[in-house]
Amino acid sequence: SFKQGKVDDHNLHLPAFEMEVGQDENAPQNKKIGSIQLAVIIFFAVSGGPFGIEEAVLSGGVFAALLAFALFPFVWSLPESLVTAELGSAYPEASGTVAWVEEAFPNKPYLAWLQGCLTWTSGATDNAIYPVLFWEYMRQLFLETEDQENSDLHPTWWRFLFLSGTSCALAYINYRGLDVVGDMSITICVLSMIPFIVFIAIGFFQIQPSRWLPSGSSSSLKSIKWAPFLNNLFWNLNSFDSASCFAAEVQNPGRSFPRAMFISVILVSFAYELPLLVATGCTNANREDWVDGYLTTIVMEVAGRWCGAWVVFAAGLSNLAMFQSEMSSDAYQLMGMAERGFLPKILAQKSKYGTPLYAILLGLFVIVVLNLSQNLMQLIEMLNFNYALSLLLEYSAFLRLRWSKPDLERPYRIPFSNW
């Protein structure tokens, strides 16, 4: 029960098999990560590559999708990353954005609790999307086009077992430790981007720029389906704030955070825009063809089936890193909330690998339940709704702290005045 914004957990007794309840002076210390490692972790928390961009073309058309992915990283993502750089370096702790809201509104602890719930549920929803994307890419690769809608080779129960099994396997990797996530993310980033580099190199000489320009009634503003179009952009360009949960694990946050944020924004922008430019410029695909996973089909047409198979492999690697990044952020946030008294203390306990086991298991349970969803857009809409509300609280906390705590030590400060 709640007591003055806290949770009474005296009656909670769960098995502690490999737990470290307190600080063990003999326990190995987590290695701090640098700017490049943090930037790549953020890249996978936000993007991970051009997987899932098909809906933007389907709902908005080629020209609108290209324009949006060129501008939105700097109009939408950059402000979010700058706020994270300032407040993440000012409050370097696992609770991340929850700490920002609680410090900004100390007399309203329910707002911090709400922020934590919104951020965590949106993160868990986000994690449930990655196995779904991998499933869709596999269907594009192994099923012929005419069989994709009518095939009964993959019944609902098979799909659920595949998605749940993938989630469990990735969660286990996450459980094994955070110290190697940065180096693994860099390696996976290189390996998962190689097929798109090959695709861009081959497809570049087949581009016809006229295919990028709007033509016909299907390219007018009236033809854009704004809800799914904006939902897809919102999903593909969010979650820079998840880096705040790793602030305590970063070397020199005042320097590393702004550098990592700038690098990650550039990586995200290029990872979407360049493959999309080539894919839309070197094929005559209709707007209606851009269903989930259609990018694999285009890669096979332009660069060969072998490169399409490589894209599926890259999707698997990217999903691995994205799942790890998001689940780490979500689990550490729960741990930070438990340390601040918003959740039962059991969620703050760590395994022998230094990871919050019960927080990981809770996230995995929610993800497996969400795997029952048959529609990728349903998951994205659920994610975006929760995340939009949490962003409102984050920006409110940022402005409130600028006014109420102007002398707060901010290792990095966005260069604008408080009016």
Describe the model.
50% of the residues are buried. 62% of the residues lie in helices and 1% in strands. The longest helix has 35 residues. The chain is mainly α and 419 residues long. Strands 1-2 form a two-stranded antiparallel ribbon.
Strand and helix layout:
Blueprint: E1 2-3, E2 6-7, H1 35-46, H2 54-60, H3 62-90, H4 97-104, H5 109-142, H6 156-175, H7 181-203, H8 226-236, H9 253-281, H10 294-303, H11 305-339, H12 357-370, H13 376-404
Antiparallel strand pairs: 1-2
Helix pairs in contact: 1-7, 1-9, 1-11, 2-3, 2-8, 3-9, 4-5, 4-13, 5-6, 5-11, 5-12, 5-13, 6-11, 6-12, 7-9, 7-11, 8-13, 10-11, 11-12
- The helix content is 55-70%
Q: Main beta sheet, described?
A: 2 strands, antiparallel
Number of strands: 2
Shape: globular
> Mean pLDDT, rounded to whole units?
82
* Unreliable stretches covering 5 or more consecutive residues: 1-28
What string gives the helices and strands in order?
A: EEHHHHHHHHHHHHH
* Percentage of residues in DSSP E strands: under 5%
Work out the oligomeric state of the chains in this entry. Answer: single chain
Order of strands, main sheet, comes to 1-2
Distance between the termini: 42 Å
Return Rg in Å: 22 Å
Number of helices: 13
Decide which structural class fits the backbone: mainly alpha
